[in-house]
Amino acid sequence: MKSATQSLPYPALRRAIARRLPDGLILLCGGERVARNADTEYDFRQKSDFLYLCGVDEPDCHLLIDPRRGRQTLFMPRIDNEHRVWLGHVPGPAEAKRLYGVPRVAYCDALPKELKRARQGYRKVYADQAALRAHRPVLRGLQPAPGELAEALRELRACKTPGEIALIEKASAATARAHRAVMAAARPGWFEYEAQALFEAECRRAGLPLLAFQTIAASGANSAVLHYHRNDRRMRAGELLLLDSGAECRGYAADITRTFPVSGRFTARQKDVYSIVLQAQKECIAMARPGLVSAELHRHSMRVIAEGLKSLRILRGDADGLVENGAVRLFYPHGLSHMMGLDVHDSPGGKKRMLRNPFKFMLRFVAKLEPGFVVTVEPGLYFIPALINDPRNRRKHRASVDFRRAEGFLDFGGVRIEDDIVITAGGPARDLTDVPKEIRDVEAACGR
Ligand SMILES: [Mn+2]
Known about the structure:
The chain has 448 residues and is of the alpha+beta class. The protein has 17 helices and 18 strands. The protein has two domains: 4-157, Creatine Amidinohydrolase, Chain A, domain 1 (3-Layer(aba) Sandwich), CATH 3.40.350.10; 162-446, Creatinase/methionine aminopeptidase superfamily (Creatine Amidinohydrolase), CATH 3.90.230.10.
């Protein structure tokens, strides 16, 4: 019989970390429960590095890898009957072995003894801080290397294996279905949280109950608040709804944004703004390939948006100049792209992958694109009162910005369009996102 774990990436990923750190014991501490207030807890989310190496979604576990002896052991807390009375079934060692494909599973109370045995012949321990704290006495005398462990994991996690991409595709497929469901159902009079609730229900229906981040359901002027998640406003006819959301599959994120008319038809002004963002997004996806520096893609998106704002007569001057002097940033104040994986804002890898930011403003993701990178492409165009009304911006960009005209858009909100793509060797990137984004397709999906 084929076991469920054969299709999961974990055994290969554990071998990879063992190859990278062959001269020490590798010890990771999983996530713990976090109290919220009296007798209640936050939803448990496993630490991403722990998920990466074993996929175990239970609190209070440890993972020990002994590269020389080729041993991998998962340690789980011993669950008593009292626990079962309140929380029901928790997998025991035999079941965990099958579920997660870990060759050995034992109880946590056996870990100190096991560490004593396993440390023989090693001088180093690659352990995270939590594990070093928890097992200080038995690890005494070994050289702790938490930084090297973190760096190795960042390096490994940057390029996704086909097994990992398959999990991201599952998250993307459920997220896409949920987006289409919201487009079809949302209507004037709905509250933003009704769009959020439908989106999240659809993800759960697809078997993915956890989200990669808090859902942003922003209508009208709220769509110009980049990380809005109050989601409590009633939507009105003629407005746009910006929905930025993503399910998580075994910890792997999807992150998709669509902006669509609540009434099902874009107005002429909405079409103008939307078309600019869509052009920037499509051109950047077409350009994305190995070797290109992510900041150069960002530069291209700023240039397209500058041209678009010129056509709206909000900006004036040469597009490159508007990129250089920062005028475009008043309407597009975030990065084009971020890495995506077990963290929705994943790391682009270790120190040697980090490149110098060519811009004066902060840009989180500056790295050469590599095959296996999964990244978002998400340009946006917003009319943000805090930026348009700021007297310093008014002074600095007097020559480049027609602020009177920009004021006419203050009720507009903003547009963002976000797909998730895989960088592919020797070819164009593969777009994982199956949600309508052309104007006619969005209107058809709204179906009204
Ligand atoms: Mn994103």
